[in-house]
Amino acid sequence: MAISRDDLKTRIGQALGEAKADLVIKNTRFLNVVTGEIAEGDIAVCGEVIVGTYESYDGVEEIDGRGLTVVPGFIDTHLHCESTCVTPQEFDRCVLPRGTTTAICDPHEICNVLGEQGLRYFLDSAGGTVLDLFVQLSSCVPATELETSGARLEAPDLIRHMDHPRVLGLAEFMNFPGVFHKVDGVLDKLAAFDGRHIDGHAPLVSGKELNAYLSCGIRNCHETTSAAEAMEKLRKGMQVLIRDGSVSKDVHALAEVIGPETSPFLGFCTDDRNPLDIAEEGHMDHLIRSAIRLGAPVAHVYRAATWSAARGFRLYDRGLVAPGHRADLVLLDDLEECAVNRVIRNGRLVGPHSFGGRPAVTPVGLDSVKLEPVAEEDFAVPAGGSVQSVIGLEPGKILTEHRRIEVPAVGGRMVADPSRDLLKICVLARHGSNRNIGRGFVQGFGFPEGALASSVGHDSHNICVVGASDADMRIAVNRLIELQGGFVAVREGKVVGELALPLAGLMSLEPFETVEAKLRSLRAAVRAMGCPLAEPFLQLAFLPLPVIPHLKITDRGMVDVDRFELIAA
């Protein structure tokens, strides 16, 4: 929105001290992420903008900042609100009080289920959040042709929304094999957004292939999992977004990369983080705290989480405690521990009152699970060769191993062997266009009996189920159909835990506090089954993602991601 001459006069007058500032944080210290110094002095705010630092000011409203340190508001550079299991409005309530004042989301989870209807839901929602929520246009719907998605978004569908005020550019370009193979539809999307921001998604891509990927105008990557991989990407001008979500936890591997030379080209993101983890560990504050504890320089961690993140997305109005910048500020009790005391968003102190009066957004996709009830026979795997490709799950990672393991057969069918942590995994198409079922085996879930089922299965979000017996798998899937999406745990023929996610099979309609409590109960039930994983449902949700190496499964079968092809049954 353009500023008026009178507004500028008001700003100038308050900056000069000719009139009281609207808000002043008095007697405080603040982190200057340009110089790295801890400065002292008042911070004066006029409306939504900082107008004074390093000097003394009087304010109409004053906050005593004694004992506090002020830093810029945190920026989550890449996330899927759907993966928090709550609506964007509840995500807003959940993370803003923790210091996240700007978030950049990719709604490709809901878009893979509902297409443009899901995109419009997010654009409408972003217009009513208190934090600044931007929406990148989902580039890969479907993510690949190796799965059945609920919708398609081609270049013309995205172009229609590219000038929306909540849109910054094109979301994570996951189909890097399509780039290297010069697929027309892939190149059409890149060409349409040439000169605009394009997010990357390039796990383990290096050498000439990384050069080719970057030559298309792709600017960043949040899928970096080692310091060596990060340094190659940084050397080639790619912004590295350090991720720590509920499953993928990369801060430990990448903290050593953060330094004075690299921090201007870094950022932090959560990607996929649920309300239970946010309650127990934090959101962006958790990433900042973790990096500092691992030895990364304090000032450079905060620079990456604020100014560098903003610059990488051309958000030049935020990220500094400095005149002329947006008054998105976090007041900390402890800088190194990132202990949030209070948050100021757009020049206003955040509290429970901040979230009243937001426009309601009508839920969509409340009937998106179109799968008919299943029988035990649907999970049967005919006996083949004794040695089979088996997914090797790695805790805390979405990368998987491609293992070759002997799978037992009984009565002409291959079966699970819980004694070797070998469970059956199936993906069932749920969008109504076919009745595909992909069948295979996985190691890493660790429970000796029972089943887990989820309608969250990146990125096409078909129903995923893993189990020690076909009987329990049937019960879990059928209960999920009744709930119209969510998470279900079954043991000894009984449902022992569940969370309903009826909005597109991805999000709850309940407050985040309720979802947190139900996730806590569900986690306890799954641990009682003997599963050692911290986030078993989220680990399950990434096993159908055929753009992450090395072995995955979709409704069409097992996928060798390195070769980007289905494995013959």
UniProtKB/TrEMBL annotation:
Domain Amidohydrolase-related: 69-350
UniProt keyword annotations, A-Z: Hydrolase, Manganese
GO biological process assignments: adenine catabolic process
Coiled coil: none
EC annotation from Swiss-Prot or TrEMBL: 3.5.4.2
Domain Adenine deaminase C-terminal: 398-565
An example molecular function term from Gene Ontology annotations: adenine deaminase activity
Protein's recorded name: Adenine deaminase
Organism: Azospirillum humicireducens
